[in-house]
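Fold Annotation — chain and its backbone

Fields — amino acid sequence, structure tokens

___
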Amino acid sequence: MIKTEFKKLGSVSLREQALGAIRSKIVLGELIPGHVYSAPSLASQMGVSPTPVREAFLDLVKEGLIEQVRNKGFRVIELSDQDLNEIFELRLLLEAPPFRNIAGHLNEDVMSQLTVDLETMEKCLESGDLTAYLETDRRFHLTLLEQFGNHRLVEIVDRFREQTRLYGLGKLVQSGNMVETNNEHRKIFQAVVDGDGLLAERLMKRHLGHTRGMWAGLPERPDPDLA
């Protein structure tokens, strides 16, 4: 029988905690596509009642990440290599170019939040907490993108991020190679703070290349602008 380990959840916003935890397991490939999972089983691992977990599952059904199997549970929808390639190409088109515009336009509150996020991601890598890392990584990227001022763009990119699969991330954390990823975050952040939009865009493209490349256990896609 397939087993997936979940941490116990706290007492605040159980639905949101369950949603974040399950989504992270899907992105990491730890919830196996095609396998049926029950809300009571996962709820038992999380130390909560089935209700918030079932609600989280239903939210993920709406997002198109899983499907409900009548009288059995919920099944993770499988994505082909072609699906993942298309998601990567769309993220390149949508997520990188806005960095030319947001560079040099961060206010103090946003810079403070992003600095905290960078530090939090470093701590998550040290402790091996991939769920918290992915949640903070998501907030870091979307906070930057929000500065472009297009809320629909942020929603679309967020949806594509949820559909990404990072099968090789766990091994990278164990090997210590994810430290370079957080260095990439810092370089992107610094380029934006310095107002160097062209460099910020190029760094973002390379960063996204890692998402589809070595993080997913595939050959790296080189960026000729940064070779």
Notes: The first strand starts at residue 36 and ends at 37.
